[in-house]
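Hey, quick one: can you model this chain's 3D structure?
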Amino acid sequence: MTRIEYRLHAFDLASPFGFADGNMFGHLLREKLGKLAPDKRAVLIECVKRFLLPALPRRIKTVLVGTHNPIRIPDGETIDDIEDFTVGIREDQVLKVAAELASKHD
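Sure thing. Here's the predicted structure for all 106 residues.
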């Protein structure tokens, strides 16, 4: 059985176009959940908060923005020392987060 894993890279937190321009989970959510899918950017934000940020070797600040990559480090902050850090999350973990978010909006 093929196991799909998504890679959350710390360097994406420093880019307005990171995490595939905020669309990292768009295809997955459309394919698996269709019209029942929650907002792809909300799922991305929650996955970054649950899986990437706690795994980083140091705490960092993030801000939420309304366009493109929705979760980033604030202007003027740097993550040069941890930009190569990556965490993998399985497709089923992403879908679980999406289901939790969808259930909150029912």
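One thing worth noting: The longest strand covers residues 5-9.
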